[in-house]
Design a protein that fits this description.
There is one protein chain. This protein has a single domain, classed as YgfB uncharacterised protein family PF03695 (Four Helix Bundle (Hemerythrin (Met), subunit A)). It contains 7 helices and no strands. It has helices spanning 8-17, 24-37, 46-55, 62-81, 98-118, 129-141, 153-177. Helix 2 (24-37) packs across helix 4, helix 2 (24-37) runs parallel beside helix 5 and helix 5 crosses helix 6 (129-141). The longest helix has 25 residues, at 153-177.
């Protein structure tokens, strides 16, 4: 895991203790969407307050949660902008049951689209080229579910492939939104 990005359980515990209505996977998705949609330190502005309000947290935890979220966002920015393609959605690892992994990945995707919208990307599905297709796919993945039943290695491979696709989709969207350079405003 990248420095600044907590493990799923750590983030889940902090959000749970704060009374958050948002789980760790969705919170990480929101922060990733915001990071893709904004440049530089824009995240430190009013978006943080609005996002924390959507979490519905106890006021006693706001400062601590804000510090953690700012660290996560900085880590995300480094992952997405870095040359090593290090980005990874914060979701349960492969030791967790398939239904829990699918549900968390769907939550993550919904959070990501919300983060893009909150960051000013009014119609993510209308981004040009592969980025628009990736955004449409992430919207669809946000609606996925799992039917009850036995799960085997085929299901494990399928969820791993979807997780890998999400990584690539996010990178495509990030690169599209940041392709203009620091002096050229993004045209969302």
């Amino acid at each position: 895991m990248h420095p600044g990005i907590p493990e799923l359980r750590d983030l889940e515990q902090l959000l749970g203790a704060s009374g958050s209505a948002v789980g760790a996977a969705q919170a990480h998705g929101i922060l990733t969407g915001l990071t893709c949609a904004t440049a530089g330190d824009e995240f430190a502005g009013s978006s943080v307050g609005r996002i924390i309000d959507t979490f519905g947290i106890n006021a006693d935890f706001q400062d601590r949660l804000l510090d953690v979220l700012m660290d996560v966002q900085q880590g995300l920015r480094e992952q997405l902008a870095g040359p090593g393609f290090e980005f990874q959605p914060v979701t349960p690892d492969d030791s967790e049951p398939v239904p829990a992994r699918v549900e968390a990945l769907a939550d993550w995707c919904r959070g990501f689209i919300l983060g893009l919208l909150e960051g000013g990307v009014d119609e993510p599905v209308r981004l040009p080229g592969d980025a628009g297709e990736a955004a449409r796919d992430l919207v669809e993945l946000g609606a996925m579910g799992v039917e009850p039943g036995p799960f085997d290695k085929t299901h494990e491979r399928a969820i791993a492939e979807v997780e890998e696709y999400v990584r690539v989709a996010v990178q495509l969207i990030y690169e599209e939104l940041h392709a203009h350079g620091p002096d050229d405003p993004l045209d969302h």
